[in-house]
Amino acid sequence: MTKASSPGLLIKRYGEWPRLYLTIRNPSKDPKPLRVEVEAEEGIDSVNIDVLWGKVEVSTGIADGIIFIQGEEIDPGKTVVLSLTSSMAKDIDDGNGICLPCIVAMTLPFLLVIIVVFKVLNKRCCSRVENNL
Amino acid sequence: MNPDPDIPGYNVWNYTMDLMKIALENAGKYGLTIDGIELDNFMGRTGCLDLRREAIEALDWNLVYDPNTFKPAVHLSYAAVEYLARLKMWMKEYMPGTGLTGNFIAEGYTNFGIPYLDALPFECSHKGFNWGDEELLYRRVMSGNRIAIGVATWSIVEKPELIEEFIDTLLFYGMLSVYVQKAILNRKLWKSTVKLWLKLFKFSKLYMRQVGDR
């Protein structure tokens, strides 16, 4: 069970490695700096972090099996949603629904066919014009 | 009212079927598709006992007793579970691929019926109606991996400045937010909060995808 803590802030953990979601809320009446510690699963030596909700800049590091997340202050009553992805999950869809390599792989053959057809037609057309001249 | 489908005579189940027949016919007439059924509210009136003989005879689950008279009785939550099981089976056959939800405002005995729901929407407001850590945690736990949605009641809708706090609070518990139905047509309200809802819509796409993956 991965544990996560965040002094002075409320925190909930969703999902499981290789991708975790953290919802962090400031229940107090004063702004609080974002400081979160998350237990890393064995074998995880680096993580990517994305802010899915909330206006906050965050940075992350890992040492002795603990992931440290630091960020700007969270305003009172605000929630921040973070996504933590371990380095073991490189093939996970990044969530925005666009896979650039897939798009290139799907469109490249069509582009090649169009170029070849264009070249062939262009050559024929040019040869006719030359013959007419 | 006892929703047990086996109660003799014209009962809640017969009424449901009549209603669904009209709804499906109407939808077909206009080329529409019904994508699910929502029960409003969900088991909110089933915290009662039915002492009638026909209710006891119709029940397939355990009986309880009236603590004042020690007479055998039907707890309506059991009758509701029978209704839900029948409805779910009916939907599987006649409305395949659709979902069953209910306005999850009641607590405790509703737990027996929750497994039959595909998502858990519930009306709530910052004024204390289904609000606060205990209430939201309870609904989060009961939702499990299913989608949970807080429906902003009129008290929130009247104060658009509180909508952001409403959405933020529910997000902390892994829940999405929507307006009550009558607020959806309020153009002025939409104008003042449209940016926020668009932001939430973008986030919701990711949320739905993650829930669907489980």
Explain how this protein is built:
The complex is a heterodimer of chains A (133) and B (214). Chain A is of the alpha+beta class and 133 residues long. Chain A is built from one helix and eight strands. Chain A is 25% helix and 41% strand. In chain A, strand 6 (58-63) and strand 7 (66-74) form a beta hairpin. The model of chain A is unreliable at 92-98 (pLDDT under 50). By secondary structure, chain B is of the alpha/beta class. Helix content of chain B is 44%, strand content 15%. In chain B, the strands form three sheets. In chain B, strands 2-4-3 form a three-stranded antiparallel beta sheet. Chain B has a three-stranded parallel beta sheet with strand order 6-7-8, with helices on both faces. In chain B, a hairpin with a 6-residue loop joins strand 3 (64-65) and strand 4. The model of chain B has no long low-confidence stretch (mean pLDDT 91). The chains are: A alpha+beta (133), B alpha/beta (214). The A-B interface holds A 10, 12, 14-15, 21, 23-25, 52-53, 77-79, 81, 95-97 and B 165, 168-169, 171-174, 203, 205-206, 209-210.
Question: What is the gist of this entry?
Answer:
Chain A is an alpha+beta fold.
Secondary structure elements and their pairing?
The complex is a heterodimer of chains A (about 130) and B (about 210).
Chain A: E1 4-5, E2 10-16, E3 19-25, E4 32-39, E5 47-53, E6 58-63, E7 66-74, E8 79-86, H1 100-132
Antiparallel strand pairs in A: 1-4, 2-3, 3-8, 4-7, 5-8, 6-7
Chain B: H1 12-29, E1 36-39, E2 49-50, H2 53-58, E3 64-65, E4 72-75, H3 76-94, E5 99-102, E6 119-124, H4 133-143, E7 147-152, H5 154-157, H6 163-172, E8 176-179, H7 187-213
Parallel strand pairs in B: 1-5, 6-7, 7-8
Antiparallel strand pairs in B: 2-4, 3-4
